[in-house]
Design brief:
4-stranded antiparallel β-sheet; 6-stranded mixed β-sheet
Length: 298
């Protein structure tokens, strides 16, 4: 059973100041001692996380543990109160919003409705960082936009109104818009929210395929630990704004993780075909039990 702690099972302590820029540049994403919060409320505290190029990482944890905030920090939409976030060795805080958007695409958990907009028009919005405001005035899709439509399988819907699509269809279109940014890093904030099981699997299998075809680095927030164990190379569990566990699914998905991070009693088995961990949650743990678990973690 892996050791679960604030710093995570793979935690090795603060970065060595002697690390060179060349060494750091090997990481697609490097989160070095990042903290973030609002007046009277700490959201993230001393987060240390490195993601290798081409790696697929799932962030898991209870609501309010800081998962979405961490994605927004990596995407440059928020600034840390301490520490720094590096993309390919460059500090996000020193990059313009448009320069960051050329490196990382973020699929938000939810988005406003887009009345009167076709699928093609919405996906083209992903080209803003590359084409700029004047370039967006040009008619027609460039090769990147056309590829994004085709890769997600929505090219035949190009002239349909977005508001006429089902929830699963709209999510695929939003994924195509993120791909149209043509970045090496794709951040997905709960991409399966509000989707039925069929469309959840469809979206996640599409992400896996696109990651392999495009050599993408993927970090996604998932509520379903079973999906995280199946579709990600690595799971990072957050609890109370800190990294509680970090490692491959087969090593860290245990009954202890269910209890101490997700607050449920349960069992963990192994899928007989795929070999990934399968979770069988039994019941939520009472607050008193969670408090005792907190004492063990800290």
């Amino acid at each position: 059973m892996p050791q679960i702690s604030d710093t995570g099972v793979r935690e090795t302590g603060p970065p060595d100041p002697a690390d060179t820029a060349a060494v750091r540049a090997r990481d697609a994403i490097s989160v070095d001692g990042v903290s973030f919060g609002y007046p009277g409320r700490t959201v993230l505290a001393d987060i240390r996380l490195r993601v290798a190029p081409g790696e697929s990482v799932a962030l898991v944890g209870l609501n309010g543990c800081g998962k979405s905030t961490l994605l927004r920090l990596v995407a440059g939409l928020l600034r840390p109160s301490a520490g720094r976030v590096l993309l390919d060795g460059e500090d996000v805080a020193r990059l313009s919003r448009r320069a960051t958007a050329r490196r990382v695409a973020l699929l938000h958990q939810s988005s406003p409705s887009v009345p009167g907009m076709t699928v093609r028009q919405l996906v083209r919005q992903g080209r803003y960082a590359a084409r700029g405001p004047l370039g967006m005035l040009r008619e027609g899709d460039d090769e990147v936009c056309a590829r994004a439509l085709a890769d997600v399988g929505v090219a035949d819907w190009s002239d349909r109104m977005v508001d006429s699509l089902s929830g699963g269809e709209r999510q695929r279109v939003r994924l195509a818009m993120s791909l149209a940014q043509d970045t090496g890093v794709l951040l997905l904030d709960e991409p399966t929210t509000y989707l039925d099981l069929r469309h959840q699997l469809e979206v996640l299998q599409t992400v896996v395929r696109l990651r392999e075809e495009r050599s993408l680095t993927v970090v996604m927030v998932l509520h379903d630990l079973g999906h995280a164990a199946r579709f990600a190379d690595r799971i990072v569990a957050l609890r109370g704004g800190r990294v509680a566990a970090d490692g491959p699914p087969g090593r860290i998905v245990t009954p202890r993780l269910l209890a101490e991070v997700l607050g449920v009693a349960g069992r963990v088995g192994t899928d007989p075909v795929g070999g990934w961990p399968v979770c069988y949650p039994d019941h939520p743990l009472p607050p008193g039990e969670l408090l005792r678990n907190d004492n063990r973690i800290h």
